[in-house]
Amino acid sequence: MSTRFPLTAAALLFASVALAEDWPEWRGPNRDGVSQETGLLKAWPKDGPPLTWTAKNLGLGWGTPSVADGKVFGIGTRGGKDGIWAVSEKDGKELWFTPFADPPPSKALGNQTNGPGSTPTFHKGKLYVVAHDGTLGAFDAAKGKKLWTKNYVSDFGGAVPKWGYTDSVLVDGDKLVCAPGGPKAALAALKPDTGETIWTTDAGEVSAGPVGGQGYSSPVKATFGGVPMYVILTGAKGGLLGVSAETGKVLWQYKNTPAAGGIAQIPLPVIKGDLVWVSCSYNGGSALLQIVPGGKDKFEVKELKAYKKPDLNNHHGGMVLVGDHVYFGHDQNKGFPVCVEFKTGEIKYKESKMPAGGDGSVAVLYADGRLYYRYQNGVLVLIEPSPEEVKVVSSFKLPPPSEKAYPQSWPHPVIANGKLYIRDQNVMYCYNVKAKN
């Protein structure tokens, strides 16, 4: 005889939270491009790891997927609407698609008219994502039901940037932190359940006049001098900001260009202890900063090391801290591998060529003793991290992009529950990278 137990509140809660091996938001569980998974393949076969499934007809978009609660989530443009989608983590079959925003007119986006670039954030059974036009939507993750929306332009006074809004929101306890980029709302904290505003960051504190338009980066949480705060790259006039998690007040600012300014402010800063590594591309560079408390609500930013263009810059593929070193791809149009000592900012190596046939911008993540470099031309390279040299372990060529008009393979790779996810416009590939026992 079997005994049936009631489904408790704790069980219901467990069913709607991210697991340790999930990838529930932009750049992973800690927003640092680092996976905590182990038992992954240390090398790949010649043609790459086994392909488990392919999902098609996702919609145009640059957005990186997130993985949680047995589903893979993303955003794309279908039928003239920006919408959020979910497919099964098991087999890639679509579960739902919810349109919720109109793409901005093409003239407002310069040369990027091929879909949104935000990553959905999963938190306690809900999803939060930003469309190209700045519409922030909250959704039920199980069925895709729209719960509420806000708009960065009409609600916060923002203006659609040249390449559209691309930030991926941060949910921190009872606050959802986003980046409208408006004169009175460089950042905003909202209630995740309702979208009600808790606080906004007045851009007047940031610079004389507007911040200079929204950048293309996203907020990360850090603690300096015992004070919790959010750190973000804003538009060119704002630079890198640290704002109070409690009030949204600006506590420190680093405006020195090119490391924290220029045309497009994209990569998340790398933060550990009181040190921050920041980088921008185009006419950008890099800098190592120390954030030093200087009294109540006052912090000093010490520039320990700075590199001007064209010495060192990261386009949009992110940077990862492994041990004592930061690894990333250098140059706006090329992903030359770079390794920098985090505590000193000293360059350990800066290559003038790319490994294994890679070409163009590169997106980087780290998992289980290996760096994953996804190049713009569709080459995926597995590298053993070392401050001495680039140690290529394996590489393979990904399938051609689904849209010939948009050949750049830009979405970042994602690793969750032993699987490697590669988005490429309308399609997504799922590879098995779990080692056999």
By DSSP, the count of extended strands is: 33
**Beta-strand percent range:** 35-45%
Main CATH class: Mainly Beta
What structural class should be given to the helix and strand makeup?
mainly beta
Number of helices: 1
Instruction: Calculate Rg over CA atoms.
Output: 21 Å
CATH architecture name: 7 Propeller
CATH homologous superfamily heading = YVTN repeat-like/Quinoprotein amine dehydrogenase
Largest sheet: 5 strands, mixed
**How would you describe the shape?**
globular
Share in helix = under 10%
Order of strands across the widest beta sheet? 1-27-28-29-30
Distance between the termini: 36 Å
Provide a quick synopsis of the model.
By secondary structure, this protein is an all-beta fold.
